[in-house]
Each structure stands twice: as C-alpha cells, then as structure tokens.
Amino acid sequence: MLDGLSFPLSLSLFVIAAGVILVFGTMITRVAAELAKVTGLGEALVGALFLGACTSLPEIATSATAASAGHADLAMSNAIGSVAGQTAFLALADMAYRHANLEHAAASAENLMLAAFVLVMLTLPLLALAMPQVSLWGFHPVSVLMLAAYVQGLRMVSSAHDTPMWLPRRTAETRTEAAEQSAGGPRVWSLWMRFALAGSATALGGWLLAVTAVPIATYTGLSETLVGGILTGLTGSLPELVTAVVAVRMGALTLAVGDILGGNAFDALIVAVSDWAFPGGSIFAAAGREQGFLLALAALLTAILLMGLVYREKHGIANIGLESFLVLSFYIGAFALLLMVG
To answer: Residue 246 gets which letter from DSSP?
Structure first.
C-alpha cells in the first residue's frame, strides 16, 4: 500500500492510472484475440488463463499486501468484491453489444464450464468460513484444495474447447470464433511480447488504481469490507471492464466472457493466496461474517449469469438481457445494504 499520500496526489495518480488502463487495456485485448487465433488455444482459454489472470494481478497485489499486514477483511473483500464487480461489468458489456443479448450470442461449452468453475472456486472458501476453523502450517487446508481446483478447472475448460461434449444451438445471432490457424515463428513471438508489454502496463495501472483508492477511502470512514468490496475491488477490476467492452465491440464475445469469468476464478484463488500471506493462522478464522455475505453474493451473480448462458434470451429490454438486469440489481442492492448496516 502507498501510505501517507495526500488526497490531491491520490486523486491525480488515480486518474493517470485509469488512462493507462484505457490505452493498454485496449491493446492487450486486440493482441489476445490474435493470439487465440494463431495459437489455436481459443478465445475462452486465452481470456481465462492469460487475459483474465493478467488483468487480475492488481487484486493479488492488493490482497496479499493487506493480508500480510493482518487486514483479513480487506484482503478477502478485495478479492471477492472483484468477482462480484466483474460479473456486474459483464452486464455493462451486454449493453455495449447491440445485435443481441450477449449471453445468447456468446453461448459456448467453454463459457458454461467457466461459469461452473467459478462457482466451485467461490463455494470452497464459503465452506471454509462455515466449517470448524483449522490451521495446518499457518493456513487452512481449503486453500490447498482451491489451488488444485483451479488447475483442474483450467484443464476442463481447455477440454471443453478441444473436444466439446455439448454444443449450443446455432441461431442467426450466435457468434462463433473465427477459424483458428495455427502459426509459429516471429509472428507468435511478436504477439507474445506485445501481450507481455501491454499486460504489464495494464496490471501496473490496475495496482496503482487499487492502492490510491485506499487513501481516498480514508476520507469516507468506510469499513474494510466496504473499502475492499467497493473501492479497491471495483477500481482494481477496471482493466476487466475495459478489456471486456473492447472485446465485445470487436465481436470477440467468447474472449469477453472468458476474460471476466477467468478473472473471477483467479480472483477467487487470491483468497487462498491471502490465507498463505496472513500471519498467525488461517485468514478464515479472522474474517468477519460480511465475507460470507460477499461470497454468497458473488456465487448468486455467477449462477444468474450461468442460467442466462443456458436460457439464451435473444433480446432483452433496452438492449440488456434479464440476467444482466438481475445481476446489476442484486449487486447494487447488496452493497447498498452493506452501506446502510456498515
């Protein structure tokens, strides 16, 4: 954290970081779409594994720093608040796609698998909060299970792309990935270098947004849960919003959904990282009950999104599907409730 920053300096750095994210977030999305084609990995896996994880680096830096300083609620609410916020961002991306409901057009086996994968990653820490508290070598056994679940989940997403056992019904509004063309040599290396450059700049901008949000929050008197869930969680997730909207505008719908859901799975894993960084035992034992509320909220929003991907409403109201409306409504309502009671 950048402690001791004045309010004007924090606000100035916040605006600069937002500009960096806007520029380099657009660049990394275009490069990721090209990599999905030339490597044959597919938009969902590139979005989940590379784009989603890269844009989630600010959250891991913020949560790990907060956890190592003993701020359990801030560390967990930053990670889980990011999951909830990014799911709401996907509803905003739905507004940017004017041809049809985004969940209808982006239906794929990979995206369904990703949504179910995120639910698993959210349920595991919720179980850790509910069960009797144990600690082995300073962390909860569920944290190790979350790492194993993350690795296996990525393998299953990759399998859903390579050998899908389920295919969505094609309609006039369904958008599929462009034909993949495996390539090698200088072009691929050039793309990876551009991805690394743009990704590093985007991650740095996201981290700067998150840490400058903390001094700004001190003037509001908000609790750690609200600071993490709203300010650092949302501001650190701005790279996901930029990349998702840019991907939708490009027509790379699977990449947009894969970026958000893949980032959500990675952010859930950050809870385990925070547990390892937290001194004096398991972070779950030190977390407040509000963290269970945030985990349940994130799982609810993900389940609504999953149902939208299965139901596939073609056209919603005012260019937004029912599931996007519900996600935004529950998200806003939940944090309004936290503000009132907090």
So the answer is: H
**Cβ neighbours for 283, distance < 8 A, ≥ 6 positions apart:** 67, 72, 75, 76, 139, 140, 271, 274, 275
Domain locations along the chain: 7-341
Task: Retrieve residue 122's tokens.
Answer: 């959210």
Each residue's pLDDT, cut to its tens digit, for the chain (342 residues) gives: 555 667 788 778 878 887 887 788 788 888 888 888 787 777 777 877 777 777 777 778 778 878 887 888 888 988 898 899 889 988 888 887 777 677 777 778 888 999 999 999 999 999 999 887 777 777 899 999 999 999 999 899 888 877 877 777 777 666 565 544 444 555 788 888 888 888 888 778 777 766 776 676 666 666 667 776 676 667 767 777 888 888 888 777 878 888 888 889 999 999 999 999 998 789 998 888 889 999 999 999 999 999 988 887 776 666 677 888 899 999 999 988 887 875
- To the question of pTM greater than 0.70 for the whole model, the response is yes
Give yes or no for a contact between 88 and 327, defined as CB atoms under 8 angstroms apart. yes
Cα(37)–Cα(179) distance, integer angstroms? 7
Measured from the Cβ of residue 136, the count of other Cβ atoms closer than 10 Å reads 10
**CATH number assigned to the domain with residue range 7-341, chosen from the 4 options 1.10.730.10, 3.30.565.10, 1.10.3660.10, 1.20.1420.30:** 1.20.1420.30
Would you call 41 helix, strand, or coil by DSSP?
A: coil
Q: In 3D, which of 250, 301, 296 has the Cα closest to residue 86? A: 301
Q: Which residues share a beta bridge with 320?
A: 317
- Return d(Cα 77, Cα 226) in angstroms, integer: 8
The torsion defined by the Cα of 322, 313, 46 and 57, in degrees rounded to 10, comes to 0
Q: Are 117 and 265 in contact (CB under 8 A)?
A: yes
C-alpha closest to that of 298 among 34, 84, 72: 84
Tokens 């380099």, residue? 24
Q: Can you read off the two tokens belonging to residue 9?
A: 């300096």
Other beta carbons within 10 Å of 314: 15
CA 91, distance to chain mean position in Å, is 13
